[in-house]
Write a structure and sequence with these properties.
Layout lengths: L1 H8 L7 E5 L4 H9 L3 E5 L10 H7 L4 E7 L8 H11 L2 E5 L6 H17 L17 E4 L5 H13 L25 H9 E4 L7 H12 L10
Parallel strand pairs: 1-2, 1-3, 3-4
Antiparallel strand pairs: 5-6
Helix pairs in contact: 5-8
Length: 225
Amino acid sequence: MGTVGTLRSAGVRAGDEVVVPAFGSVEVAQAVVELGAVPVFADVDGDSYCLDPAAVADAVSRRTAAVVAVHRFGRPADVAWIREVGQRHGLLVLVEDEPGARPEEAELRREHAGYLDGRLTGVRTPAPASGHTYEKYVVRVPGNGRPDRDAFARALRAKGVACRVPVQAPVYRVPGLRQDVFLPETERAVDETLALPLDAGMTRRSVQRMAGACNALGGLLQPAL
């Protein structure tokens, strides 16, 4: 049915508010606007990049009709707590999943991720979580923000590592969805995150080479004093 159809069938109407993630969910916010409803952006948890239940609670108003949570990078959102917030305020809670892989592929990615977790230095590796399928292996590059992450990414690409920035901007800065909002965890995630390639078909040797390339760039990762 899709997000628009689900929200419409649940009774969300023009003028209603729908709480949505500010990080990486442009399509969800656009679906809310398509209904004539108003997306209200909530901050994300700094470990999961999914909606922070406390931020959801803070975003609820008398006009709020629904919350849309999205699993991010293969890590499940904290749906139980978000549903508890929804129940407390009488809201529809819709959970959107990203496209997933076959179980055997997810298991191989978990193995590669476990190796990287134990080998990478100078970057913040993904926080462990039950059910994480590592659709993307997203690290954080500490330091002064975007210039450090971007310099690190350029240097990695020069070494043949096809890394990419997973989210280019907060959703509230996307044309057609702009709002005068500043959400600190979302801003930090946009500035610091970098997705390393983690295909189930990668060999252990290729994963080792990638880890070595990342670790060799430790000098770029010194935090600002």
